[in-house]
Design brief:
single chain, alpha+beta, 6-stranded mixed sheet, about 45% strand
């Protein structure tokens, strides 16, 4: 599986530890898609921040996020629909940079 496929699987499974492990120790996840659901932008720096944030997100969400209509554009880009509460948001997630070990250094998630 590609890193982008693993990212989607971890989101669907509610696996915060697996999700964080995809990122470099200093990896960055920047998500502006949540604005469409009335949530502040998510900007996380570092694997520990990513793990902790998604631990809380999956907990408050009652489990994994509902993701539908997944379409892989290439090995680094995916579009899908994600449900935040009662709001469905179409997103485009792109891995822009990797470290030497193949871990994610920079990932952006935008409303699509």
């Amino acid at each position: 599986m590609s890193m982008i496929e693993l990212y989607v699987q971890c989101m669907k499974d509610g696996n915060n530890v697996g999700l964080a492990d995809l990122f470099s120790e200093r990896g960055v996840l920047h998500d502006t898609s949540v604005i469409r659901a009335g949530i502040d932008v998510i900007h996380l720096e570092g694997r520990m921040a990513i793990e902790m944030m998604f631990h809380h997100k999956f907990g408050f969400n009652g489990g994994p996020f509902k993701i539908h209509g997944v379409s892989y554009k290439d090995s680094n880009t995916v579009s899908y629909f994600i449900v935040y509460g009662q709001t469905v948001v179409p997103v485009l997630a792109t891995i822009s940079k990797y470290d030497r070990d193949g871990k994610i250094l920079l990932m952006n998630v935008f409303p699509y």
